[in-house]
Amino acid sequence: MFARKTVLTIGVVALTAAGCGSSDDAAPVVEETGTARAGSDLAAEAGSTEVEGPEPRLVVADADSGRIEVLDLATEESVHTFDVGNASSITTINGRYAVATDDEHAHLLDPGSWTIDHGDHTHSYTKDPVDIGSLDGAEPAHVIAGDRKVSVFFDGAGRADVVDFDSLSKSESTVATTIESNAHHGIAVPLSDHFVVSTGGTEEDLPTGLELRDSSGDVVRPLDAACPEMHGEAVFSNYFVVACEDGVLKVDASADFATTKFPYPTPDARAWSFAHGSRGALVAAPTETGVLVLDTRSGEWVQARTADEALSAGVSSDGKTVFSVQADGTFRVFDAVTGAETSSTPVVRPTTDDGDAPELQVGGTRAYVSDPVARTVTEIDYRDGGRVARTFDFDFTPASIGVIGA
Q1: What is the DSSP track for 225-282?
Q2: Of the residues 97, 127, 168, 310, which has the fewest C-beta atoms closer than 10 A?
Q3: Where are the beta strands (DSSP E) in 127-264?
Q4: 119-162, pLDDT tens digit by residue?
Q5: Can you tell me the distance from the alpha carbon of 279 to that of 317, in angstroms, rounded to the nearest whole number?
Q6: Please, what is the Cα angle at 172 between 62 and 153, to 5 degrees?
Q7: Cβ contact 124:141 at 8 Å
Q8: What pLDDT was estimated at residue 354?
Q9: Helix (H, G, I), strand (E, B) or coil at 142
Q10: How high is the pLDDT of residue 39?
């Protein structure tokens, strides 16, 4: 299990959501599917309860035992333990679901907390965590959400399985579409009732191009841009970006899936993965010389340069701040507009080449950093000079982490 190690300040992680104009003493509305607050404009999902504000949960995977712990960040209590085999990687989907992958399976998990943003107000819900089911195939790797779908590309099988959000909300893992390809480290991006699928890759070499598929997964046409050594993507409402050896490629569904290449600002670093916030158009990539920040709408770059390597990166929910965990063990905060460093906080032990790298995830107004060596996850208030708020001890190595419900 886990234990809280240190607490410098105690407080609720997320702000209470704004109300919907209901009176405080009105009788609660009980829907057939779940329990909603009085005056709520949404029905609650089966088995769920609408709560006053976000109640985020931390999801932590132990690669050795197959345990995945779900921690309520408000109460600091474990609310559930999933036993899914040997999952070493967690991908969170829209702040709601988690997909845990091992060598032969992609486990679809509902950790049981989520928030729906209506712009001027939000609705938050909790429920008992649910193991939705698994998708089976050799070497699942890239898990990508878009167009109210999630796709899992099985590298060894050369296949992507796609599940609709509607199925997930019913705790079902029904595969809506299967996309056949060749065995390679690939991607299948759901976008505007189509899929964009990687091409040109082999089991030894990364993909070099993309093709458009229709809603059934059939090939429509190749896209007209090369992307050598493709790896790392971020999906937005009607476009996505993918990292290449020579720049970042944007595929825009609103322009008939036209492509635009944004060359890297300097040749000494490239992106291999992206983090992006829940709002805005910024993506951040850790590199050997710091953090690369790209405005995916304008194509403008900002470089946050550091003396040592950035191992993981993050973007705040408002898109104004970017973060990194460095090889020297520090958590750093940068202004997203200028790239200027605003704070630096020691959070993990310096990383060696033979050690597991720390992972950075952002949830609401806090950032979370895993330390596989110390078996801890540190919670950081990035708005308060990178202050360490809490540190959680685990009796296993946190191989991968995620935050849902923030």
Answers
A1: ---TT---EEE-SSEEEEEETTEEEEEEGGGTTEEEEE--SSTT---S--EE-SSSSE
A2: 127
A3: 130-136, 140-146, 149-154, 159-164, 177-180, 188-191, 194-199, 209-213, 219-222, 233-235, 239-244, 247-252, 258-262
A4: 788 899 999 999 999 999 999 999 999 999 999 999 999 999 99
A5: 6
A6: 60
A7: no
A8: 64
A9: strand
A10: 64
Closest C-alpha among 202, 211, 89 to residue 140: 89
Eight-class DSSP state of 385: T
> Cα–Cα distance between 334 and 342 in angstroms, integer?
5
- What per-residue confidence (pLDDT) applies to 288? 94
Answer whether 182's CB lies under 8 Å from 197's CB: no
Confidence at residue 125, expressed as pLDDT on a 0 to 100 scale: 95
H or E element, residue 167 = helix 165-169
Cα 371 from Cα 396, distance rounded (Å): 11
pLDDT of residue 351: 77
Residues of the chain with pLDDT under 50: 5-32
- Following DSSP, what letter does each residue of 270-323 receive, concatenated? --S--EE-SSSSEEEEEETTEEEEEETTT--EEEEE-SS-EEEEEE-TTSSEEE
Residue of 307, 259, 306, 248 lying closest to 282 (CA atoms) = 248
Cα separation, 321 vs 2, whole angstroms: 30
Maximum Cα interatomic distance, the chain, rounded to a whole number of Å: 64
What is residue 65's predicted lDDT score, i.e. its pLDDT? 84
Reported pTM: 0.89
Confidence (pLDDT) at 17: 33
How far is residue 51 CA from its own chain's centroid?
A: 23
